[in-house]
Amino acid sequence: MHQPEFGDRQAPEVGELTPPTRTLMGPGPSDVHPRVLRAMSTPLVGHLDPSFIEIMDETQELLRYTFRTDNQWTIPVSGTGSASMEAAIGNLVEPGDTMLVPTNGYFGGRMAEMARRAGGDVVEVDAPWGEPLDPVAVQAAFDEHQPDVFGFVHAETSTGVRQPDVPELTSIAHEHDAYVIADCVTSLGGVPLKVDEWDIDAAYSGPQKCLSCPPGASPLTLNDRAMDKVLSREEPARSWYLDLSLLEGYWGEERAYHHTAPITNVYALREALRLVAEKGIESRWARHRETAGALKAGVEAMELEMNADDEYWLPSLNAVRVPEGVDDGAVISDLLEGYDLEIASGLGALEGEIFRIGCMGHSARPENVSLLVSALGQTLAEYGADVAVGAGVEAAAERL
């Protein structure tokens, strides 16, 4: 059969871009704020244009405010949250270093994988999925393994658990002269996070969750101690693109060319962070807690079970146990098709056992919570689950 030459090929017929309008209540992305969308339509300038350098400075200052830090080395990494994660781990973990990672969720496993690829040796501190790390267990792991770097997940997206006792964990690490890396992907801008006060050496996040910004420019902050380790490495980081000693030249005082930054994504992040600063970070934490509290009240009034205990509940990511006999995938599909409402299933050890329901950023609004409780309750009832839909709707409405 004759195969056409490249020049004989017809241009593909592709229509206009018309994705559906969804209500995003999954683990991310969240609904993007209209002001952020407008910022993305701002005309491009060059990545070394004096006007863009001013925007870079403003974005860094807004990130410091949101992270609650004075760290000079606070930047948006060009890439998704996994890029800022790999930048932190890949620069602080040198070949031969030992990194202590948690086993209580999916993203502790990703930390371990990145540490191994950086040439590090990985040891673990154990905790069940659905529970936070116990400082006693962390202390025992440090005494046994003497790790150089300790990573923990502040807000575990796979389990809906918030890690308490952060200052106690960082104190244990620093008593052993280790560096602390915090995964704040689902906490930055949504639940209390205080990098300086809690003595965290490096923290990374993503913009598409509590900041309600499209992925593409991901927050990262390192203190002087951590940056000194990066700049004194005996051999360069294995990733040229994410080598912070090179990125320092672009985001530091020199503004020397390293790569072409995702300019539109930086515009978007700057506007998202402006929204945080305008209302105040404490007010934003409170709004997430109150709105997600209404969601939680509605879910529990329907006699559904939260995966995390109240003490460790993560407002930005609500993990709800799937009722016995219900196909989680079918429920998720029906919500998407029937209500244009997105939630997600579990990951790893909790696959098929929980629904992951986000309440983040611009998605954390009363009308979205009302829709979610009503739609989830009705859909579960259609699949034979014994749920009190009316009680759930009423409980959520009372809180809202």
Automatic annotation (TrEMBL):
Q: Using the UniProt annotation, give all residue ranges assigned to the region (Disordered).
A: 1-31
| Comp. bias regions, Basic and acidic residues | 1-11
Keywords on record: Aminotransferase, Pyridoxal phosphate, Transferase
- Can you give the residue ranges of the Aminotransferase class V domain? 45-322
The record, for Gene3D superfamilies, names:
Aspartate Aminotransferase, domain 1, Type I PLP-dependent aspartate aminotransferase-like (Major domain)
What GO annotations for molecular function exist for this entry?
Answer: alanine-glyoxylate transaminase activity; L-serine-pyruvate transaminase activity
Q: Which Pfam families match?
A: Aminotran_5
Transmembrane segments annotated in the record for this chain = none
GO biological process, alphabetically ordered: glycine biosynthetic process, by transamination of glyoxylate
Record CDD domains: AGAT_like
The protein's required cofactor(s) are namely: pyridoxal 5'-phosphate
InterPro entries, sorted: Aminotrans_V_dom, PyrdxlP-dep_Trfase, PyrdxlP-dep_Trfase_major, PyrdxlP-dep_Trfase_small, SP_NH2Trfase/AEP_transaminase
Record keyword Manganese present: no
User: According to its UniProt record, which protein family does this protein belong to?
Assistant: Belongs to the class-V pyridoxal-phosphate-dependent aminotransferase family.
Query: What is this protein identified as?
Result: Alanine-glyoxylate aminotransferase apoenzyme
Species of provenance: Halobaculum gomorrense
